[in-house]
Amino acid sequence: KLFFENNVTVKNNTTPNLSSLTLTDSQHHGDYAAIASWTPDGKYLAVGGYNGGNGLIVYQWDGSTLTSVASQSHGDEVYSLSWSPDGKYLAVGGENGSNDIIIYEWDGSTLTSKTSESAFGGAVYFVSWSPDGKYLAICELGESGKIIIYEWNGSTLTQIDSKAHGNWAHSTSWSSDGKYLAVAGDNSDEDVIVYEWDGLNLSEIITTAHGAGYSIDLSFSPNGKYLAVAGTNGSEDL
Q1: Which residues contact 174 (CB under 8 A, 6 or more apart)?
Q2: Per residue in 27-52, pLDDT tens?
Q3: Cα 22 from chain centroid?
């Protein structure tokens, strides 16, 4: 038996030995699946892409089988999905007329639309919740390729700040403490920009180019000390 008195931490530093991949299940998603995202508890998998009338499908996962439990149309295409940290909401971005961003509430069986917003230029490339679930960052394809921060109160999205990102902003990554937001895209010598976020304003603190090309995706390490960037850059794509 172990008795804890609120002052003991137990850590397992074992490194898992992953030596192979075994296919357990597969699903067809129309023309193609563009993005997939697990709920924080790993019980459900949301898949988006181009699939006629069901661009968004949520599957239940039991460890061996994917079972479709809910689906929604998203106009032309779903580009990005992001579950809120508590798993209660699913943010969906893509190309869908006046509803390029839709926030759904999820109860384990039904997707209920809570609110929607249109992109100012034509489509939403990427959506990402802040670690505390209070803010939603989006990358928008259009004039100045903006990065936009919305505040979320459980029912509505309120725009707080936005920044231009050259030709287009493609993806974002929040640091684990929510203090920094990194943005990737096509922006001349500033393809990658790291902003400090104080809850009201994005303040640029560092920029870098991604070689002769552009950055497509990036990710902060869990401790926030490192930033991995992928894109088109000759022999240094990553």
Answers
A1: 128, 129, 130, 131, 137, 180, 181, 220
A2: 988 888 999 999 999 999 999 998 87
A3: 26
